[in-house]
């Protein structure tokens, strides 16, 4: 757990220094926050829905979920110490953990800037915002606020049409959970969630963007479009294929239905994850995480496996050497997370070529 790295920016939001080494030579996220009117993968999208999703994801990648958190406010509400603030895998989700002691139960708060919007049983007003509140279970509660089309257009005017009258499809969500099921939380989770949203409501009205640098260090991969290499990836599969943008940081290329589920496909995922280079040095690399490799000058792992729909090859490549995010900065034996490009393909030759194409669109050549 990251400790004693909380600090407050001039804008009043709490930010976490996620790594001890902050220098990077990759382009800043804002350099990639705009997109051409026609998406590079446009001809490979299978439907207008996919095109709208891809355009919306351009806008959602511009948002900084960690800057929506306020550790000081949550500490005051919960009476516990913030000890970790970092992306939870993909860059559109940021987790804030609070504990009094390392192995004690505590609260986890996750903000997702690319959640699906659903009013559910209706909306209510919290902190002056119209939101949906859902009690997930006795230990967890989620509150969501729809993101209007006008805001997505403002974030990515070249990609998202200015159709402010359209119904919202995406939302910012906040999920607050008590970390253990073995005991009841000290406060009802939905009460904590409402109190926390009330404290940070101003930030939710105009969500902070990555190019405002509210959090450090910058994570350049968070500005990369995982579907942008579609023209190159399409040539690695036989026949006519379609690209499906699943989430802001994941895409899949495959033959469209009614093709069977075991049809060869290529998937791309971008995330902050365990360092594949470090994993390859451990015994864990012998149980399915792959062998050490280098692709386009970047280190990582390459390994074959079998899933429910057949065999595949998985490449996990370190996008950049810095920043390196250690779960507990005070201990050298804790895992390190880095920006990772992950590609799954039918074979390892295809996986390697796919990684090369993704890295090239991300500015690594």
Assign the CATH architecture of the largest domain.
Sandwich
Topology, number of strands: 17
Distance between the termini: 34 Å
Order of helices and strands: EEHHEEEEEEHEHHEEEHEEEEEH
By CATH, the topology of the largest domain is: Jelly Rolls
The top-level CATH class of the largest domain is Mainly Beta
Please characterize this protein's 3D structure.
The protein is α+β, with helices and mostly antiparallel strands and 365 residues long. The protein folds into 2 domains: 6-11 and 63-212, Sandwich (Jelly Rolls); 224-361, Protein Transport Mog1p, Chain A (3-Layer(aba) Sandwich), CATH 3.40.1000. Helix content is 19%, strand content 32%. The protein has helices at 48-60, 71-78, 149-155, 189-205, 230-234, 276-280, 348-361; strands at 6-8, 14-16, 81-87, 93-99, 107-116, 124-126, 129-137, 140-147, 170-178, 242-247, 250-254, 265-274, 291-295, 298-307, 310-318, 325-326, 336-345. The strands form 3 sheets. Strands 10, 11, 12, 13, 14, 15, 16 and 17 form an 8-stranded antiparallel β-sheet that branches. A hairpin with a 7-residue loop joins strand 4 and strand 5. The protein starts with 5 loop residues before the first strand and ends with a helix.
